[in-house]
Specification:
The structure is a homodimer of 251-residue chains.
Chain A: H1 6-20, H2 32-39, H3 43-55, E1 59-62, E2 66-69, E3 75-79, H4 93-100, E4 105-115, H5 118-124, E5 131-141, E6 144-154, H6 155-158, H7 176-181, E7 189-198, H8 201-207, E8 215-225, E9 228-238, E10 242-249
Parallel strand pairs in A: 3-10
Antiparallel strand pairs in A: 1-2, 4-5, 5-6, 6-9, 7-8, 8-9
Helix pairs in contact in A: 1-3, 2-3
Chain A binds a DNA duplex (21 and 21 nucleotides) through helix 3.
Chain lengths: 251, 251
Amino acid sequence: MPTEPAYHRLAAVLRTQILSGELPPGAKLPSETRLMEQHGISRSVAKWAIATLKGEGLVVGRAGSGVYVRDGHRLVRYAHGREMRTGSGPTSPFARDAEQAGRTPTWEHDSRHDVADESIARRLAIEPGAPVMRTSYRFLADDEPIQLSTSWEPLAITAGTPVEWPEAGAAVGVGVVARLDSIGVRIDEFEERLTDRPALPDEMEALALTPTSATVWVIERTYYAAGVPTETATIVLPRGRYELVYRVPVL
Amino acid sequence: MPTEPAYHRLAAVLRTQILSGELPPGAKLPSETRLMEQHGISRSVAKWAIATLKGEGLVVGRAGSGVYVRDGHRLVRYAHGREMRTGSGPTSPFARDAEQAGRTPTWEHDSRHDVADESIARRLAIEPGAPVMRTSYRFLADDEPIQLSTSWEPLAITAGTPVEWPEAGAAVGVGVVARLDSIGVRIDEFEERLTDRPALPDEMEALALTPTSATVWVIERTYYAAGVPTETATIVLPRGRYELVYRVPVL
DNA sequence: TCGAATTTGTGCGTATGTATC
DNA sequence: GGATACATACGCACAAATTCG
């Protein structure tokens, strides 16, 4: 019977200590030298064990200092269909989630006219090349970058209206549903498709991710009014930092 | 200016080739020896680069054979509130998703009486120690284990009814909503909370996961009838194998 | 059937750079 | 400055699985 590799055993020991709270968030793991002495192993076994935990997002290493248990605190992102028209006042969904977690939300944005590429055209059920408004966001909580998103709206719907530019005018920061309500477009449904994948180089840069553990969650969200897509967005979240909550009525 | 580490550069090169399709699913990566020759690096650099890609779920290694690009095919899991009472006939949500993907669903289950621990009691809004029906499932698609779930129902609701045992009687395999409908409990809402974490040892066993890349998605789902929890379940999915789709009406 | 070659998996030792304390 | 610690990197060795003639 084959025995389990030493670095798997060590990773399992440390993982158990972390998940049980014996090594709480912020705690410093024993140094590689100590792990070598205490477990009778070589440095490379210690390194592979710690690399495993890094890949799981449980720890982060700091050169010259040590390896530390990551803060498992997650931002809760709520997705439901209520109170989207008038309810919570002039705050975006991200700002509401961040404030509810006691964190200070800020964001940067950039809107511009663009044309739909093939994938966006499919999501919006329009022709490739059709004009769209493209808006990119970078959200921060307590100055830590924690969400990227890019949204596309068909200009056939909003061109010439007061809400053509999402981040300008009276209906700024109220969310897509309320904004389009103000021009008589009544959104009645949305869909979110969630996958995960390795972060792209620019996403690693924008989210300040380390090359290890650079997996992101990707949400493709589309709003519909009577079956017609009115806005679609791609939302990128660093893995391990969010809890996603969906609340859905059963008809 | 510090230059980027060699194993990051190599990982980036291979990652780009994989994501672009130049190295399609099933393709064999160059052997470590070839990578050493072609890039002028040591064996360990090649190993660390490939370990990075394994952690991202992009490749799998087979001793004695090679490292292969993983099949990116994902099972689509739909979560919405329609057609849950009568619509799709006698199939569970998992079976419907699997068949829609052209795969053959099978599952094992185990039901037994139990008492609610603290976390289950909180999710069901009952007292800790209250009797519940606990049912564990292991779902397979084409004989590949791909989903675990455990559900809890308060026996205060179902005890003595024809649907007390979820996998026995007339209302088997029709889903929770239709099953409880048959005893007059009308579910009108559900909530799902999604996080990710490293797989536990028994989950790795049950899902046939390799120690590397053993991250799972965890969904905590609760059904409500007029605000009262009637069933809660913990669903464990291997990461990288699912696309989750939520469709939510906007009120 | 057998054996040789190949390939990954695991593990050791060492060295250098650099960040932290 | 010195000690400590992690990050990166090289080389080597053996085991185990696979491949293929």
